[in-house]
Amino acid sequence: MVGNALVDTFAKLGLFHKAEQVFSSLLIQDAVSWNSLITGYIEHGYGAKAVECYEHMQDANVVPNLVTFICALKAFSSMGAPDKGLDTHCEIERLGLLQKESSFGNILVDMYAQGGWLSRAKEVFDKLPARNIVAWNALIAGCAEYGKGNDALKYYEEMKHLEIVPDAITVVSSLRSCGLIGALDKGREIHAEIERRGTFKYNQVVGNALIDFYAKCNMLGVAHEVFEGLVFRDVISWNMLIAGYVEHGFYEEALKYLDDMQLQGVYPDSITFIYSLKACNSEATVDKAKYIHTELERKNLLETEPVVGNALVDIYCKIGLLRRAHEVFDVLPARDHFSWNTLLAGYVEHGGYEDALDLFKFMQSQQVPPDEVTFVCGLKACASIKALFEGINMHVEIERRGLLVSNHPIGSSLIDMYGKCGVITKAKEVLDRLPLRDSISWNALLAGYTEQGSAEETLKCLGQMRLEGIPLNVPAVVCSLRACASIGSTSLSEGLLTEIKQKRFLERNYLVSSTLVDMCVKCGSVAKAREVFDQLLVRDVVSWNILMAGYAEIGHIDEALACFDQMQFEGVAPDAVTYINSLKTFATMGATEKGQEMHTEIVMKGLLEKELSLGNTMIFLYSKCGAVTMARQVFATLNVRDIVSWNTLLAGYAQVGQNGYLFSTFNSMVSHNVKPDVITFVIMLNACSRSSLFSTSQSYFEAMSKDYGVFPCLEHHSCMVDLFGRAGQLDEAAAIIEKMPISPNVVVWHSLLYACKSWGNVQVGNQAFTQAANIDDQDGASNVLSSRIQVES
């Protein structure tokens, strides 16, 4: 008796070490002593320990009594483990205890409902000889917990029909169900009943449930009114309100409530911080995110609440602070798949593909098996940087674990990876093996064919996709139009165009309309492009840019410039591409003054600092117009200069024959650690050729491969042939051609033929003509040049 009392006392106080010591010392461990221990574990939230204790009791052949069974069922219920309670339920049924003790029925309904076995809970409920408020609440709460809001409200109505008066638990579960399914009218009805009866007017839990209900239904004003009407506002009240504002995108207001609650002396808990972090989803809230981070560290929540740490990693990733995200990730005491995947997705989202793959490898080294989300992120990183080797390794692991046939997103990601890496046959193999081939997987293959320039395969793939009953969608339309554009045939797209119009893609999607205009332009039908363009309901800057570029391409300069004026008249602001197209048009016209006007406009908008390609085009304009001083000034203002910037300026100096500036700029480029490329040496050799600078030209030609690792191509050899040809050293020019490591084309032989004509060298001219004719016997230019050599000699 005394021993059992001590076990009971220590267990109730949570002193389980002492309770277990006394229990172990008992000569007789009967049902009472076991029950005391089990009850203590349940009361202090140690459900698993209570179940373990119950199982030991059974192993010890101690016969359970009513209290034991009740405690055991409560333990199974607290764990959400109805499967473990099945045997106990059967034993209770066998002993006929369900009819003798009404509380068994209520506890069984609760156990099954809390574990999600709702149909079994209803079976037990229906067999109860008498159903009290406890049983109804267990059933309604279970339905609410597992998203069965309609069922919960149906049971609520049945209960009321039987004139069973709802209590606070009933009301809370019913309001939660209304919030789940957006049953605003029903929730208002329950609210009105609460007000009418006045029973729960000052009930904190009911008040919080009302805030949650109205917030979920996007009635934030009413939620705030209920909140203001509460006599006492606890942290849950604030959390419900903050969560509501966050879920509906009112982030600024949510963060204001975070400040207000602290001013009113209510300390945020982990839930508050999680929702507040979700509200910090832009660069403007970086300081607030850092403040919350500091608070989390101060309260030691990063170590005790893994979900808070994950939320912090997630928000840093979303606002692009990846280094901070990784720092938080590194100090997390426990990292689950969500932690790894959040950081991995953050790197992929912000273009840190190498970092993503490094993290993927580190994850494997830590013996954490990648899940479906991990593989999808990893494959996306591989696709983005064409990391085929890493992608193949992932594929092997996916096959080993049987994920390809069981997980559709992984299959589509594999197709995308192989397509972007250029292994399109492998992408097709993966598609053929998928048990389900939907629009996403087909689109991935279509994109792969399009990216590789396999236009005919793209259209064939589209046909197969249609045969399988996959409806036309935006990505498929875009890929198909691009394929038609690369073939240069509008006739192939006629049927597609009809369907596009029928399904109103042009009205609904800017990308489709812009791509269609682009296709018409690339197929040489600018008039058709204009016709399509004029039919667009919304003409964005992309479609204007495509049309302008099309006009410029075919030399319709006036129309291109008219587009620039018209788009602004229609309220469409030019972007960097618009200005680039316009500047190229001015360069073609030699319109330096117009270019200067646009230059001023670009500088005023601050675009020159943000868009390097715009600066490079500005240099091109001035260089093309011979205004190399202006080109140099633009070059000097660029914050960043790439190889295109340097080459464009070099080409400008070469064009006007300012060799001194040309050579000094080349030297400056090298001293700035910018490596010359193929184009750089074409510019330098052409300039040397025009100025007959033999030794300088040979120095550059030799330095290409020796000093810079640039191996001479056809154009470089052609420059050298031109150099010797201009100087009349025709045998040497012919020797250069003979020694070329690559087969010369007709253009190279034409260069030699021109030189032979200039110098009247019939012998070398005949050799050059023979070689040119061997390459192209229909080449009229070679015949004309050869004839003139014969006549003029």
Automatic annotation (TrEMBL):
- First and last residues of every PPR repeat: 30-64, 132-166, 234-268, 336-370, 438-472, 540-574, 642-676
This chain's protein is named Pentatricopeptide repeat-containing protein
- A GO MF label: RNA binding
Q: Which GO terms describe its biological process?
A: RNA modification; system development
Q: Give the originating organism.
A: Ceratopteris richardii
Q: Which NCBIfam families match?
A: PPR
Q: Name one Pfam family in it.
A: PPR
Keywords recorded for this protein, A-Z? Repeat
Q: Which PANTHER family match?
A: PENTACOTRIPEPTIDE-REPEAT REGION OF PRORP DOMAIN-CONTAINING PROTEIN (PTHR47926:SF382), PENTATRICOPEPTIDE REPEAT-CONTAINING PROTEIN (PTHR47926)
